[in-house]
Amino acid sequence: MLLGQADRHLGLSEGLAQCFIDRRDPRWTDHSLKELLRQRVYGLALGYEDLNDHNDLRRDRLLAVACEKHDPLGKDRLHASEEGIALAGASTLNRLELSNTKNSRYHKLEHNPARVEALLLKAGVRCIPKAAEEVVLDLDAMGHLLHGQQEGAHFNRYYDNYCYLPLYILAGEVPLWAQLRTSDEDPIAGVVAALTKVVAALRRRCPKARVIIRADANFCREELFSWCEGQKEVYYAVGFARNSALIGRLDQAFAEARAAHCLSGAQQVRRFCEFSYLTRYSWSRARRVIAKAEVNSQAEDSRFVVTNIPAKGFAGDGPSHRFSAQALYEGFYCGRGEMENVLKQQVLDLKADRMSTHYLVSNQLRLWLATLAYLLLDRVRAIGCRGTDLARATAGSIRLKLLKVAAAVRLSVRRVHVQMSSAYPLKELFRICQERLMKASVSSA
Fold this sequence. Notes:
Pantoate--beta-alanine Ligase, Chain: A,domain 2; alpha+beta; Nucleotidyltransferase, domain 5; 16 helices
């Protein structure tokens, strides 16, 4: 029920239904398009990633209520053999996902990929405060392994397997972009086109915010840098793969780190420096590079970040040393590790890497549905669990502690009664979460 309230707050299922074309004859239709989409997205959020799971879930009356079925008892089915089963089975949901790839009388629920893409972006941007003064966008490409003959499957040397290489763009813990790509493409492929749409949407939501793009060395390309430098109030901090020329700039920093390590006896010693650097061929101009020289008891290490963020920071933006060499690397750039935690939740909790259909377009739809399911769980956490012990919980923990809760469900003609156990240890937190989400859903309506 919490998922339904989060859905109404964002308007996800309503908007998602508008991304589809329903060519079915309503006279012979048991399940509306919105009901099917709610059932699939809520199922993913609840941990049922396989369509086969819905052959049992279709009998779940509380899920039918959450999907806003007008007949949650399943008494008004068109076929008598289906009486008592309110929701759709695996075959119906499978046709929903495959309609773009099948041309038959059974596949009549075609979706518009551009609209679904825009819906995810719109819903994600709505979660960012309008008064935000700075928005950090994290970019990453994550390998989703394939175990079959999926369309577009290619062997990737880094992952040592056949995989897809989807592009994710997040603002904090909020997903804004999830684009499925084949693994034979360069990681930078499609990034500028995606950022053009994302930044435009952010400008409409937060017109006064500066945008800082943060990414690892896979995205260290002139194409990205020149695009950012051509935009107003768009900055970047991107990892830079080390080479002999860069390491040569760290001789003094390493000498100081070695001396300090010997004298202090510390486990590790770091020294930071910055310099202007221009590649021989690939860059159009010299750029600011932050370098880290680290010495520990086992080895020596170096890391580099290229950025156009001014060393003195931004006027009227607090401490002027916020973007000095050490602060930018340790306090800002390393913060992109939080994005890795979000992607882990996508894979471990939402099974977003379950690319088990043959077609690229239907696997892209599955990726979008899993991302929308994560967005619902994130709203339950951000709105309902704000300031509580679950404020920083993972999607899996939210599911386990708030959604997978035993209760007695009784349905009458006019009401649905859900009786929870008085021994439920998080009942007060559940009450707070439910009240907050209800208030948010009512205000959005």
